[in-house]
Amino acid sequence: MFVKQNAQLFMVNISKKKPSYLISKDLRTYLRKYQRDTQLLLKYDDLMQYSQAFPLVDKKGQDTLWFTVIYPQHVIQELNNHLTNVYAILKTGGEAGVMEHLNIDRIDFCSFGNSNPFRIRVINRFNDNYDYFYVKRADASRLYGLELEHLLSPNRINFLVHKETLIEEHIAGIPGDAFIKTYLTRPELNKVRLAKEFIKFNERCFIRLLGDMRSYNYVIDITPDFDNEQYRVRAIDFDQQSFEGQRKMYLPQFFKENNAIVALCTQLINLETAKQYQYEERTLLARRLKSARYRIKDLIDAMRKDVISTPEKILELKTALAQYHKREDFLKCKNMGDIVRMQLKVILSKIKTR
């Protein structure tokens, strides 16, 4: 899939505002079966009671597009209790003892994007160590994206759903746009390893049809190794799971925001090696699919009964994939769930998983 071409030549046309899709009955049943759905004392609208908001800037004084929000005194204490309870449920299954030394240090809000998230900073009063989690409006597209990431990628995802509220843990890493700006020119950067991981990330996104992986929608996790560094590219935004109609929308290599990393890939990785990395990733996905086949079947079955895109985009995507794979089976797909199922079948069914 990864080709040596200038990404700027293939600018994708992204929908300016993807509609939010409600959680269907079948998806709710799936979430309950696999313990994603739970009862919480907090809902998203509780956090909308803030009285003031101040722009949040980074260490260099740059606008982060987040606002730190302030709540009336009669609201903040109840929020503190409810949010620490949510954090305890997310991290420890609700062990009450961990709540005693936790406090909510800051609440940030972002109006940019589809999920309008609140970012909660939790601090340990004993040692000042802090962690983050997010409270968002639950969107069916995002839930399918989170579950597919959890089941098919090398990354485990921890999240909970309460009615129409989504609780999501923080995914650690350097945002892709910041990495490109500040890390890409560092002499100690292992460019070949980074290029390899981006090719594998590109392949994962295409196979499971996760779209809109522009540089600010993924992070790069750096792990020191005994002789150098290892890198892993991780998606952090799942709103565009199987929504758009353009095939290139599901390939990070075609976004201009990723051009700098794509240039590394084309300069340092030849076509034969790129194919090797793609096959490695397909083999790993096929093994994960095999080990979680019943759960993935339940998820895809719910998706096949759901509405998470428009008829026009469904027609566009299934036509494009039918042409790309030279498989007319795609033309029989009636919805995005059918297309994801067919995509997994066509790409992974021939992979040996011994």
Core attributes:
354 residues, alpha+beta, Phosphatidylinositol 3-kinase Catalytic Subunit, Chain A, Domain 5, 2 domains, 7-stranded antiparallel β-sheet, 3-stranded antiparallel β-sheet, 10 strands, globular
Helix/strand class: alpha+beta
User: Termini separation (Å)?
Assistant: 24 Å
Shape: globular
Fraction of residues in helix: 25-40%
Number of helices: 10
Low-confidence stretches: 5-10
Number of domains: 2
CATH topology of the largest domain: Phosphatidylinositol 3-kinase Catalytic Subunit, Chain A, Domain 5
Q: What value does the Rg take, in angstroms?
A: 21 Å
Number of strands: 10
Series of H and E elements: HEEHEEEHEEEHHEEHHHHH
Q: Look at the structure and give the mean pLDDT.
A: 93
**Spatial strand order of the main sheet:** 1-2-3-4-5-7-6
Overall CATH architecture of the largest domain: Orthogonal Bundle
Largest sheet: 7 strands, antiparallel
Q: Which CATH C-level class of the largest domain is it? A: Mainly Alpha
Beta-strand proportion:
15-25%
Short description:
The protein is an alpha+beta fold.
Describe the structure.
With 354 residues, the protein is α+β, with helices and mostly antiparallel strands. The protein is 39% helix and 18% strand. It contains ten helices and ten strands. Helix 5 crosses helix 7 and helix 9 (311-325) runs parallel beside helix 10 (336-348). The two termini are 24 Å apart.
